[in-house]
Specification:
Cytochrome Bc1 Complex, Chain A, domain 1; 26 strands; Metalloenz_LuxS/M16; alpha+beta; 950 residues; 4 domains
C-alpha cells in the first residue's frame, strides 16, 4: 500500500533567521556553563577575540566554559598549494616531521606529554590549502599546551636531520599504500584529480604525493620549506575552551613572543584552465564493483556559486532523500551508493558525483540517468522542500561541529584563513538563507555542463601503479652540520611548565526510569547548545541470530528505515532530512540500535520517526528484495578491503565455526538470499520488545521534557507474542591454527589481525587491563606502534585493544604493514608482547598511560553522541550506570603490579592467532621463516589449502 504523505515538518531554527521554539522545547531549567556559541536574535555567532603579536603570530581566543577543557588548534597557512614542482606530498610530509621532536622536546616525547596530561584528539592533518596541528587538554594544562605548540613551531627545525626525515618518509609512504593503493578506488580518485588539473597545478596530485616525490625530498628542501612557511607570521593559533583570557594572553606572549618572523611567503598565483571538452578515462583497480565519477571545476570557497552548488549537491546526492539516491539506489536499483559533494577549496572547488554500481549494472545506463537528472535540475529549480532539507542539514552539521571544543577551534581557524573573519559563521549561513531555488538551477546550468567535466570509469582489473621506488636503508647517524636553528635556544624552555590546580574530574551522570511496559529510559541532561541525541538499544544483535540464518539481525535493522506501516522509505528519508537530523539503524554483535541526532527543535518529530521505525516496520517484499541485493553487493565490497576481511576472518578463528559471532555480520550469500518477510518479522517480534530495550538520551532536555516526549510514543509499546528464552552464548572455541593467511595477490601491504578470546565486561581487572593495553598497543605512543612505526617505519599505524561485551570478549592487534616486512613486524610485535609480560612498567610509563586513560575522560564524553554511545554500550554490556561515573576511581587505583598481573593472566602469546591478508607469494615465505607455517585461505577468506599450522 502507498503510505500517506507526511505533514510538513517545519525547521524551527531557520538559517540565520529567527529562533522560535515551541513551549515544550523551552530551555531546560538547569543553567548551562557559559559557552562561546550563541543564537542571540536568532543568529548563530561565535564569541571570540583576535590579536596579533609583534612577530606576526595570530591568536584567536574562544572562551567557552562548558567543560574543563582547552583545545589548541594551530594552523600553518601552507599546503600542497605552496609546493614546488616535483615535490608532491611535501606539505603532508612536513606535518609528520612536526611531531618528530624539537630542541626542547626530545623525539618521541611530544605525544607522551599529551598522553600524560590526559590529552584527547591529538593529531595533525593536511589539505590542499593548509596544515593543522591540534590536541585538547584539561584546562589546568594551558601552559603545557602552549609550551608544546611553541616548541613545535619555533624549534622543530633544530631537530630535522637525515634520520628523522628518512623515518617519516617511510611512514608517509606506508600511509600512501594504506590510504591510496590498498584502499578501493584510491587510485581512481587520484586519476580524477590528475585529469582535472594540468601539470604544475598544485591540486593535480593527491595531498599525500607520489612515492617518487616523497622519497626524493632532500634535507635542504625541508629546511627551505620551514624557513619560508613555518614562521610565526604565517601561522594562527586558536585556543577554545575553559581559560581566563588575561592569563592566556600572557602565556601566549611568553611562549610565542620571541619567535622570529620570517619573510613574507610568496603569493600563490595559479590559474585553473577551463575545461572546454569532456575528458574521459577508464581506470582499473582491485575492486569488485564498478564506479562512475563525474567531476567539474567550480567556484572557489565562499565565492559566488559555491553555496548554490553546495545546495545542489544535497539535492542530487546528499542522503537517502536525495534525487540520485532515490532514483539509482531505491527505484532502479542500479547503484550500491551515491555520493555528491561540492569540495570547496581556495583556488578552485571540485563538484563530484560518485556512483558505485550494483553487480551486473551498466555504468553507461547509470551515467545516462545521472545526466538526465543534472539536466532537469539545470532547467527546473529544486522544490522549496528540497532547499529546506539542504539548509536544515547544513545548519545542524554546523551546530554539531561547534558542540566539541576541538572542532569548534578548527572551525574558527577555517573561517579565519578562508574567509578572513574568525566569526564568519553568521555570514556563512546567510549565504544559504539568501538563495532562491532558481539561483541553484541557474548555477547548475552554468557550471555542470558535459563539455566542462571529467568522467572516470572504474572497472575491476589489474591495478596500474608507477614503477616501484625502493625503500633505502634507514640512516643510523646524523652527519655533522645537518642540524641548524631558526630561533635562538632559550634554556628555560627545557623544563616543562607545571600544571595548575586541576578541577574535580567528573563525568556526565545519567538517571534512569522505567515505563510501565518495561522500557528503560536513560537520561543524561546537557543544557547548552540546542542539540539532542538518542539511541534505542535492543538486545537484538548478531548474538541472537538463529544458527541457520547468519546476518538476520543486521538485515532486520537495515529494514527499519525502509518503510513502516504509515511511511515509505522516501517519506522517512525526507522527514529526517527536513529536520536536518540523522536517523539510522544498525545491528552490532550484541545489540541493535536506532539512532537519532539533531536540534532540540526537531526532537519531537525526530523521536516520533525513531519510534515509528522500531515499533511499526512494514517488511514489504519489494523493500526486502532491494535490501537483499544491497547486502549481497556489500559482501563483494568487503572482499575489496583487506582490513575488513582480516577482521571477519579474525572473528571466525576467535569464536570458532558455529558460534553466532564467528559468522560474517552480513551473513553468507545463501543466508541473505533465503531471508524473507516471515524470518524478518519473526526476529523482530522476538527481540524488538520494550523489556529488552533501553532508550538512551543526552542533550538539552530536562527530565520533564523527556517524559513528555517518551510516554506518548513508547508507553503503549508491547512486545508481540511470547518473549524468547534468555539463552547464553556458547563459549568461544578458537581454531587450532595459530597462523592464517588470506591471499590477496599484488597487495602492497599486509593487513594483520592478531586475535584471541578475551574477558567479558565487568571483569574485576578491567581498568588494569585497559591501562596495560594502553602501554602495549592502545596509544599512539604505545610500545608496538612506536617500534613498528617510529623506529622501523614498517607501518602507518598499528594498535591493540580489548572488546568487552555482555557475553563476548576479544583481544586484537590490528594494522597494516609493508608487504616485505610482514614477518619482521610480527617478530617485533611478539617481543613487545613478551616484554609487557616480563616485568612491571616503570613509574614514568605507568603514570603516562594511566593518566592517558584517567585524565582524558572528560574529553571522551564531550558531545551528546559520545555520552549516548557510552551509556548505550554500558547498558548493552549489562553494566550499571555507575560503571561510567566510577571510571576515575577505578583507573586511579591501577598499579604497576595490577597491570602486570592483567598482562600475565589475559595476554597469552600462545593463544594469539595471526590473521594476515596479503600477497601469498611474498608473505608466506616470511611467515614460514619465522616458524609460522600458515593455513592458507582464498580471496574470500575460505579454505583453499590446508597445511600443518604452528
Amino acid at each position: 500500500m502507498n503510505a500517506p504523505a507526511p505533514r510538513r515538518l517545519v525547521t524551527l531554527l531557520a538559517l540565520a533567521g529567527a529562533l522560535s521554539l515551541p513551549a515544550w522545547a523551552a530551555p531546560a531549567a538547569a543553567v548551562a556553563p557559559q559557552g562561546a556559541v550563541s543564537a542571540e536574535a536568532g543568529r548563530l555567532a561565535i564569541r571570540h577575540e583576535k590579536f596579533t603579536l609583534t612577530n606576526g603570530f595570530e591568536v584567536i581566543l574562544v572562551e567557552d566554559h562548558r567543560l574543563p577543557l582547552v583545545a589548541f588548534n594551530l594552523w600553518v597557512h601552507a599546503g600542497p598549494r605552496n609546493e614546488a614542482k616535483g615535490q608532491t606530498g611535501f606539505a603532508h610530509l612536513f606535518e609528520h616531521l612536526m611531531f618528530a621532536g624539537s630542541r626542547h622536546v626530545p623525539r618521541g616525547e611530544f605525544d607522551k606529554f599529551v598522553d600524560a596530561a590526559g590529552g584527547t584528539d591529538a593529531n595533525g592533518s593536511t589539505n590542499f590549502d593548509r596544515t593543522n596541528y591540534f590536541f585538547t587538554l584539561p584546562s589546568n594544562q594551558l601552559a603545557m599546551g602552549l609550551w608544546l605548540k611553541a616548541d613545535m613551531l619555533g624549534w622543530m627545525f633544530d631537530e630535522i636531520d637525515a634520520v628523522s626525515l628518512a623515518n617519516q618518509q617511510d611512514v608517509v609512504r606506508n600511509e600512501r599504500r594504506q590510504s591510496v593503493e590498498n584502499r578501493p578506488y584510491g587510485v581512481v580518485e587520484e586519476a580524477a584529480y590528475q585529469a582535472l588539473f594540468p601539470e604544475g597545478h598544485p591540486y593535480r596530485a593527491s595531498v599525500i604525493g607520489s612515492h617518487a616525490d616523497i622519497q626524493s625530498i632532500q634535507l635542504k628542501d625541508v629546511k627551505d620549506f620551514a624557513r619560508t612557511y613555518y614562521r610565526p607570521n604565517n601561522a594562527t593559533l586558536v585556543l577554545a575552551g575553559d581559560f581566563d583570557p588575561k592569563e592566556a594572553k600572557a602565556l601566549v606572549q611568553k611562549y610565542f613572543g620571541t619567535l622570529k618572523a620570517g619573510p613574507k611567503p610568496p603569493e600563490v598565483q595559479v590559474a585553473t584552465p577551463e575545461i572546454t571538452a569532456e575528458r574521459r578515462l577508464v581506470v582499473t583497480d582491485r575492486i569488485e564493483l564498478g564506479r562512475l565519477n563525474l567531476s567539474w571545476h567550480t567556484p572557489a570557497m565562499f565565492k559566488p556559486g559555491d553555496a548554490e552548488l553546495d545546495i545542489a549537491a544535497h539535492v542530487l546526492g546528499g542522503g537517502k532523500a536525495s534525487r540520485l539516491y532515490g532514483l539509482l539506489v531505491r527505484d532502479k536499483q542500479l547503484a550500491q551508493s551515491v555520493q555528491v559533494s561540492q569540495g570547496s577549496q581556495s583556488l578552485s572547488s571540485v563538484f563530484d558525483i560518485e556512483v558505485v554500481a550494483r553487480p551486473g549494472a551498466s555504468l553507461d545506463d547509470i551515467e545516462t540517468l545521472v545526466d538526465a537528472e543534472i539536466e532537469r535540475l539545470a532547467k527546473e529549480p529544486p522544490t522549496p522542500a528540497e532547499v529546506a532539507q539542504a539548509r536544515a542539514t547544513i545548519e545542524t552539521q554546523l551546530l554539531q561541529r561547534m558542540e566539541k571544543v576541538t572542532s569548534l577551534a578548527d572551525l574558527v581557524n577555517h573561517y579565519n584563513q578562508m574567509a578572513g573573519d574568525p566569526g564568519y559563521v553568521g555570514q556563512d549561513l546567510a549565504r544559504y538563507a539568501a538563495l532562491a531555488p532558481a539561483d541553484v538551477s541557474a548555477t547548475v546550468a552554468r557550471y555542470l555542463q558535459k563539455q566542462r567535466r571529467v568522467v572516470v570509469i572504474a572497472k575491476p582489473g589489474e591495478q596500474v601503479l608507477a614503477a616501484e621506488v625502493p625503500t633505502p636503508p634507514m640512516p643510523t647517524q646524523v652527519a655533522k652540520g645537518e642540524r641548524e636553528a631558526l630561533n635562538a635556544p632559550e634554556a628555560w624552555r627545557a623544563k616543562p611548565p607545571a600544571a595548575a590546580k586541576a578541577k574535580p574530574l567528573t563525568l556526565p551522570a545519567a538517571q534512569s526510569f522505567t515505563l510501565a511496559n518495561g522500557l528503560t529510559v536513560i537520561h543524561s541532561p546537557k543544557p547548552g547548545l540546542p542539540l539532542v541525541s538518542a539511541s534505542l538499544v535492543l538486545r537484538a544483535g548478531q548474538a541472537v541470530n538463529p544458527a541457520d540464518k547468519p546476518g538476520l539481525a543486521g538485515f532486520t535493522a537495515a529494514m527499519l528505515p525502509e518503510g513502516t506501516t504509515t511511511r515509505s522509505a522516501q517519506q522517512i528519508a525526507e522527514g529526517s532530512a527536513l529536520l536536518g537530523a540523522t536517523l539510522t539503524a544498525q545491528a552490532g554483535p550484541e545489540e541493535a540500535r536506532v539512532d537519532f541526532s539533531g536540534r532540540k527543535a526537531a526532537a519531537r518529530e525526530g523521536f516520533a520517526l525513531l519510534a515509528d521505525l522500531a515499533l511499526h516496520p512494514a517488511f514489504a517484499n519489494a523493500d526486502i528484495e532491494r535490501i537483499k541485493a544491497q547486502r549481497l553487493a556489500a559482501l563483494a565490497q568487503q572482499r575489496e578491503q583487506a582490513p575488513l576481511l582480516a577482521n571477519a576472518v579474525g572473528n571466525r578463528v576467535t569464536y570458532g565455526e558455529g558460534h553466532p559471532l564467528a559468522a560474517n555480520a552480513l551473513g553468507t550469500e545463501a543466508s541473505i538470499r533465503a531471508i524473507d518477510a516471515t524470518a524478518l518479522r519473526g526476529f523482530w517480534q522476538a527481540h524488538y520488545r520494550p523489556e529488552r530495550a533501553a532508550l538512551v538520551v543526552a542533550g538539552d532536555l530536562s527530565e520533564a521534557e523527556l517524559r513528555a516526549l517518551v510516554e506518548p510514543l513508547f508507553g503503549a509499546w508491547q512486545g508481540e507474542g511470547a518473549a524468547p528464552a534468555d539463552t547464553r552464548l556458547p563459549p568461544a572455541r578458537p581454531v587450532a591454527a595459530r597462523t592464517v593467511l588470506v591471499d590477496k595477490p599484488g597487495a602492497p601491504q599486509t593487513a594483520l589481525a592478531v586475535v584471541a578470546p578475551g574477558p567479558f565486561a565487568g571483569a574485576p581487572d578491567t581498568a588494569s587491563l585497559k591501562v596495560m593495553n594502553a602501554a602495549l598497543g592502545g596509544l599512539f605512543t604505545s610500545r608496538i606502534n612506536t617500534q613498528l612505526r617510529e623506529v622501523k617505519g614498517y607501518t602507518y599505524g598499528i594498535y591493540s585493544g580489548y572488546t568487552l561485551g555482555r557475553e563476548r570478549g576479544q583481544f586484537g592487534i590490528r594494522g597494516s604493514v609493508r608487504t616485505d616486512v610482514t614477518g619482521a613486524a610480527l617478530v617485533d610485535m611478539w617481543k613487545e608482547i613478551e616484554g609487557m609480560r616480563a616485568k612491571p612498567m616503570g613509574a614514568a610509563e605507568l603514570n603516562r598511560v594511566r593518566n592517558a586513560q584517567l585524565l582524558s575522560l572528560p574529553g571522551l564524553f564531550d558531545t551528546n553522541v559520545a555520552v549516548v554511545n557510552g551509556y548505550a554500550g554500558n547498558w548493552s554490556a549489562g553494566q550499571p550506570l555507575a560503571a561510567i561515573t566510577d571510571l576515575p576511581k577505578k583507573y586511579g587505583a591501577v598499579t604497576a603490579a595490577s597491570a602486570l598481573k592483567a598482562a600475565k593472566e589475559r595476554l597469552d602469546p600462545a593463544q594469539l592467532i595471526v590473521v594476515a591478508v596479503g600477497d601469498k607469494a611474498k608473505v608466506q615465505p616470511q611467515l614460514e621463516a619465522i616458524g609460522r607455517k600458515p593455513a592458507v585461505l582464498g580471496a574470500e577468506g575460505r579454505a583453499e589449502a590446508t597445511s600443518a599450522a604452528q
